[in-house]
Amino acid sequence: MFEKGINNSEDIKNKLEQGELESVIFDLDSTLVDTGKYYRDWMKDSTRAFLEESGIEYEETDIHQIYMYGVQIHRDAGQPLLITSYVIGGIIQYLKERGREDIEKVTPYIEQYLSEFYKNSPEIEDGTLEVLYELKQKGIIFGIYSHAQQDWTEIKIRKIQLEYFDRYHEEIEIPFFTTAIDMKKDCQGWIDASNFFGFNLEKTLVVGDSMNSDIEPAKEAGCTNLVHISINEQYSNDKMVTGIKGIKQLLEHL
């Protein structure tokens, strides 16, 4: 299903110029904002803080191991969970494996430590502002579809808008649609998002980093023009899917 390199899909630029594509829907996390690093930093920092507070000696390899336990919890769940679930579950697994009995301290400490997590935004991905500026200049309408809480999505959108204003000295409207974190970002979610924006999915370019929650369900919903972001450059060989390493590379197709 995957191959190394950029797909030889049909030319997105030509389709935009000829009106075959009229709109763009972006995924948000790890597409326009660097949510992966944001999660990683908070998960590891909170783990270090707990172990130090508890007087537990550790190596950085232990922190990474606990982080990977949290990643596995996410994979097993098959959908996003609150960050506290990953960190608490990872630390408890680590402590149990070492015969520790003080696991009752984990939940209250981590919940307090991470209480500010959803009040801030990850950093914006390199290229996000330039891509949005290019779309605005060309009059191409766009929206963002996020699989996160409404409030946290608003915080990220506002950060993008503020940095856009600082860069280009003009405001930008960014319509967005969210699917609750406890629901799946599936085919119906992409249909609902396109209806919310008033977009025709058959004439919409979908851009996202996840094959499971962005590319495949959007394709099932009727989208035939998709861009998959993969930092490892592992791309689908599906001719409807164009592979790029990061959002900045989308500029080559606009």
From TrEMBL:
One of its GO terms (biological process) is DNA repair. One of its GO terms (molecular function) is phosphoglycolate phosphatase activity. GO terms for cellular component: cytosol. InterPro entries: HAD-like_hydrolase_sf (IPR050155), HAD-like_sf (IPR036412), HAD_sf (IPR023214). Pfam families: Hydrolase. PANTHER family: PHOSPHOGLYCOLATE PHOSPHATASE. This is Haloacid dehalogenase domain protein hydrolase.
